[in-house]
Amino acid sequence: MVRMVSATELRPSTNAWPIEADRLSVKAGKHLAVDGLDLKLGVGVHGLLGPNGAGKTTLMRALSTVERPSGGRLRLLGEDATDGRALRALRARLGYLPQHFGFYPRFTVREYVEYVAWLREMPKADIPEAVQRVIDRVGLADRADSRLRTLSGGMLRRVGVAQAIVNSPDVLLLDEPTVGLDPEQRVEFRTLLRDLGTDSCVLVSTHLVEDVVAACSDVVMVNLGKLVWQGVPAELIALGEQGGVGDSPAERGYSTILASHRSAA
Ligand SMILES: Nc1ncnc2c1ncn2[C@@H]1O[C@H](COP(=O)(O)OP(=O)(O)OP(=O)(O)O)[C@@H](O)[C@H]1O
User: Is the CB of residue 47 below 6 angstroms from any atom belonging to ligand 1?
Assistant: First the structure.
């Protein structure tokens, strides 16, 4: 007997491009901060680089579905991210650490991460174990029951990472996650990133070119709201070996790309 197969069953379970932007435009206030950006990102860790004001945070806000695009097309995990009906299911599969994340200072680390897990509609029975696992992963096991107001800036950033990964997201967006981390924590965080990127699409915005070289499989550079370069860290380093401004080959590669985009703009 022939069984009818539904459209949902036929849909691929993994998406070649968990993030797919086509001529994407996003406003920050009245300013067009993302201006016709094309981007395709697969599974792996992608470092998002660009100067101050390049549009990184605005792009992250659109990818996290916090900000609605003003133009172009945005597909996340194969779904149209501008379709209000798709958003609820989509958000349950996203993780986002904003540049400035709000929290209730009286919450403990555990309470806060539990609260976010609940917001992302995780099954209630799974929450305690998932929360403990991510608190361990960001190295805050000994502060799990401390109130957020008693934590240092670097520890708060780690709480931010924990809440972003509690639902094991398929798309993870981290806006400057390493700000305030001490060198030892930064090294541990890079290991965590590489681990997360084995089966998720992770986009990490940072000003530290060295973080990108150490932990990312791919580099995305933006300037003036546009994609100006995409490649692997080794290509960035190779460019920097030919000259440019900076203390390392990767930094010189970054400055070379930026200078050539500025002179062409
Ligand atoms: N609320 C706003 N109103 C008007 N312009 C804004 C607003 N927010 C951001 N902008 C402008 O949009 C542009 C992109 O800002 P965005 O914060 O996305 O850049 P960024 O690359 O994340 O910068 P940074 O590295 O400094 O964090 C900048 O020119 C900024 O001045």
Answer: no
For every residue of 140-192, DSSP letters joined together read: -GGGTTSBGGGS-HHHHHHHHHHHHHTT--SEEEEESTTTT--HHHHHHHHHH
For residues 164 and 134, the answer to whether their CB atoms sit within 8 Å is no
| Ligand 1 center–CA 65 separation, angstroms | 17
ipTM of the complex: 0.97
Secondary structure class of 54 (helix, strand, coil)? coil
Beta-sheet strand order (sheet of 94-97)? 94-97, 171-175, 201-205, 44-49, 218-223, 226-231
What number does the ligand 1 atom closest to the CA of 205 have? 22
Distances in whole angstroms, Cα of residue 61 to Cα of each of 125, 175, 180: 30, 9, 21
Mean pLDDT per segment of 10 residues, for the chain of length 265 residues? Answer: 51 73 96 96 96 96 96 96 90 93 90 95 95 96 97 92 96 93 89 92 94 94 95 93 89 93 82
Q: Of 161, 171, 162, whose CA–CA distance to 43 is shortest?
A: 171
Please give the model's pTM, rounded to 2 decimal places. 0.92
For ligand 1, whether the C-beta of 52 sits within 6 Å is yes
**What is the reported pLDDT for 8?**
46
CA-to-CA dists, residue 198 to 163, 195, 219, angstroms: 19, 6, 16
Q: Is 33 in the pocket of ligand 1 (CB under 6 A)?
A: yes
Asked whether the beta carbons of 95 and 164 are under 8 A apart, the reply is yes
CB atoms within 10 A of CB 145: 10
- Cα 28 to ligand 1 centre (Å): 7
Q: Give the sign of the dihedral formed by CA 41, CA 43, CA 120, CA 188.
A: negative
